[in-house]
Amino acid sequence: MINMKKQFTIACILLAITAFHAKAQDNTLLLNNHQYTGAVAKKKAYKAIYQLDSNDPKTIEKAIRNINNVLKDPRLKGHLQIELVAFSGGTEAYLKKNSQYEKPLKELVEKGVIVAQCLNTLEEKHIAKEELFDFIGYVPSGNGELILRANEGWVIVKP
Question: pTM value?
């Protein structure tokens, strides 16, 4: 009987120690997470191409907002090259009739962002270049641009 009581006491002590250790580890993980401030930029240059293939106003606005936000990231400032390529439904953002996007897109170009349109989409949708904002650049195909950029080491971002 005495031996069983000792074993039970030892088991309870071990259980308490394990529970205490687990709680302490949880607190350490929470503290470490709270202190995290993000990845550190170690390269001289970073490149990202944003894929805009939706005419949903929320998606268009999100793409523009995301690009503006990343341009302000102090870790990447001065080390970042960005391209926004539109095709399929994303072409809507570049049409003169959707003038609400002209100013924010022009501001992106003025910040050094390449803003480009897929020529295949224009052909398929029978849209003339004259219907798009004058400052838009052109690529033969949006998917081709993504493939080429990806193979050059660019990160593809789809808002």
Answer: 0.82
